[in-house]
Amino acid sequence: MVAATYPELLDWLYTLEARKGMDFKLERVAAVLEELGHPERKYPVVHIAGTNGKGSVAAMLHAVACGAGLDAGLYTSPHLVRFTERIQVGKKEIAPEEVVDGAREVHRAATLRGVELTFFEFATVLAFQYFAQRKVPLAVVETGLGGRLDATNVVWPELCIITNVGFDHQEFLGNSLTSIAAEKAGILKHGVPAVVGPVPTEAKVVIAARARMQSAPVWWAGNDFNWWGNDGDWSFRGPMGELHHVRLGLRGSHQCENAAVAVAAIQALSSRFDLAPETWRTGLAHVRWPGRLEVLSGDPLVILDGAHNVDGVRALVTALPQIVGGRRVRVLFGVMADKDWAAMIDLLAPHVESVTVTRTPSRRSAEPASVARRWCTRVATEVDDDPRRAFERILHALRGDEALLVTGSLFLVGQIRAEFLARETKEDRHPGIPRVDVL
Description:
Blueprint: H1 6-20, H2 27-35, E1 45-49, H3 54-67, E2 73-75, E3 87-89, E4 92-93, H4 96-113, H5 119-133, E5 139-142, E6 159-162, H6 170-173, H7 177-184, E7 194-196, H8 201-213, E8 218-220, E9 226-230, E10 233-238, E11 241-246, H9 253-268, H10 277-286, E12 294-298, E13 301-305, H11 310-324, E14 328-333, H12 341-348, E15 354-357, H13 368-375, E16 380-383, H14 387-397, E17 402-407, H15 410-425
Parallel strand pairs: 1-5, 1-6, 2-5, 6-7, 7-8, 13-17, 14-15, 14-17, 15-16
Antiparallel strand pairs: 2-3, 3-4, 9-10, 10-11, 12-13
């Protein structure tokens, strides 16, 4: 690896992703971590899997920990704008020069072990090594895909979390909820407690069987903990106490579920960490998770939501009326070819006035013309292959009684978010880098 600068390193990493793709094995990551002295064992970990919501739950847990004075680590994927978003300690992202230094160490260890890591494996090892160097008191780690063979599943966590189970990535995880649940449940470890969010009955059976096999105690949503209210006035009851009248920083009824999973996890960690209830309230109120029902602008009203599967769109359309009020909704839509985009369109179409179908900044993008054929049977539809041009054109024509929603893919949301913010912040971005990771 020849990478003297951060942009050169990113170019190398994305070339690595294009060349290696996805290859789900734990042996390579385990070998490199062993060469590095097992940094992933030097701090307690909360390990989170789930079809949707795992990033939001990770952000909530991290916000509460930071609010309690812990400079906790946070590892999530993908990033929206900057690679450094993936790895945080406290409230700060890893610095570009720290990425370069850490990457050299990871590459050296991989070379000594004679393995070549995939992009996600490399990023995961980099994060674990960085957390050890920074001596974090806790690391909140989100799986990338599935769980059982995910690169993050080399950790022996303090707590496991499964947020929910739905249909996504069937080509990797299987075509039934039971097979998908089995992959998610693969993060459960012997004797390690777990928190499980709302899951279908068939998924619960699979997760419960795995938990029994691992002698892992489980707190179940709806049984061991409950919640009620909305994101403006939310309450919770769990094994270790209650919390009432909380304002959630993240919008939508699905975030009420995610908050319940996060607070249950906090309660489950109470014997290890002093996270007082007042820090729960503050953390939940101030957490931010860009690209998820994010109001990018109030005038004109621009909303970003990275819904990229059927369950994600279902949550989006439930929350949308509260955000847009009586405005008519215009949509900029781009999606991956391997998603069930027809079902996503069928859910979203009754709630929108018109749509512009574009290409996502990914080699896995669905062809806009094909997607548009589904849309045009439902609403006024146009096609523009260039997402930046399409966004600018819609934004320029947007009237006061209209809202613009960008959705269908986090890749698209990230690109549009970067373009919009760059106007005012002149944010330092590495141009031309594609999004990576499976979504």
